[in-house]
Amino acid sequence: MEVEVRSSVISHDGCAAQGPRALGSAAATVPVFIQDTEAPVLGQQQWEAVHERRAAGYNLSAIARDLQLDRKTVRSCLQQESWQPYQRAAAASLLDPHRAWLAERAVEVNYSARILWQELRAQRGFAGSYVIVRRAVVPLRLAASTAALTQRRFETGPGEQAQCDWGQITVSLGGVRTEVHIFVMTLGYSRRGFALGFLRERMPDLLAAHEAAFAHFGGRCEFLLYDRMRTVVLGTHQGRPRLNPTFSSFAGHWGFTPRLCQPYRAQTKGKVESGVKYVKRNFVPGRTFLDLEDFNDQLAAWQTDVADVRIHGTTHQRPIDRFAEEARALTPTAGHPSFLQAMVRERRVAEDWLVSIDGNRYSVPFVLIGKSVQVVRQGGAWVIRHLGAVVAEHPVLAGRGQLSVQPAHGPGAVARNARQRFSAPRTALTTSRPQDLSRDVEVRDPAIYEQLFAAPLVEAAT
């Protein structure tokens, strides 16, 4: 360790004897090497020199004298099979339990150390200071800046790839603050987008959004890119992503190939993420909506009147103009049967002779309690079958928590039907020829009725 000390043994007389310049430098600082308490760390050349001398037959003392090293240092060096540069052990930090969260959240808040510190204290029980967080964010921000300078935008050809993602935003639907989930699909070449709002992100919503997007574009791309949402991928198996079986069947039905982003590499699908931000920042502000249907009606008009005809910041062209070229490369989907309508759903009939479909409940004949039925959507109706026979049909209910019950499915309807089945037919009570009812009616004098009503009164008076 190199330190600076001041000489205190040189007298002024001695300096004067050497001349005036020596007097002026009497208080000068000179470097002095003091042995550090830690064992010195050898550089790579010194390490190689120690091993070369050892291979030549030198003993520890000879190597230490020759290289002016401590014998303990030489012994430690000889025990190392290869040279390792010195690394100071990292000191423990209050941020250590939050490193993974910090790296992920920093991107979302644009590397704001102040926001991260506030969220750490409020949500994760962090007791450290703002300075600790600020120092931890510096290398993250630097790494992101370096990656932004070195990464190259990945462009795809017409009809090759589309990117899909969800975005969430809270709006007023009929005066009630409601979170709307917006599905966005962006074509990679033309940057033309499609957006549709839902109240949730369930599997039926995802599939319905895809089919609506295919209808909007008039076709589909060869590859569709997703992040690792649960409705698309369930996890990994032997290091490979495992697709959700329903979504895998959907992709096979329509003939496209799903592709997944690398974990923690959200910029891979930057086109659609920009599309989600564009919907949130350009479409939503200043608007009010009666309900979800009104939201989607206004969204469709905005896409046609604004989004499709703007000058895109990357392509410097209108998406609708570039789409004219991309449309020819899309695989046509017109006339292709709907997967949602062809998909058979297995349901078990509950004790209340109802089956649950997409959050709503529909009745079936009560004799099917505990049995399995198959549900298929045909247009705007659910068709429910048991052993291949249709047992119920119901109009598709909107929203969730709704109930559709047909009285004929209940136990009371069975008893009523039995009475009607085993009672005498109404035609058996009538004769085969018309009757002249006028001959069967006796015509009486009204005085007779007066006498009948008067008799009880007389008895009561007596």
From TrEMBL:
SUPFAM superfamilies recorded: Ribonuclease H-like (SSF53098)
PANTHER family hit by this protein: TRANSPOSASE (PTHR35004:SF6), TRANSPOSASE RV3428C-RELATED (PTHR35004)
Name of the featured protein: IS21 family transposase
Span of domain Integrase catalytic: 154-327
InterPro entries hit by this protein: Integrase_cat-core, IstA-like_C, RNaseH-like_sf, RNaseH_sf
Annotated spans, Disordered: 419-438
Family to which this protein belongs: Belongs to the transposase IS21/IS408/IS1162 family.
Organism ancestry: Bacteria, Pseudomonadati, Pseudomonadota, Betaproteobacteria, Burkholderiales
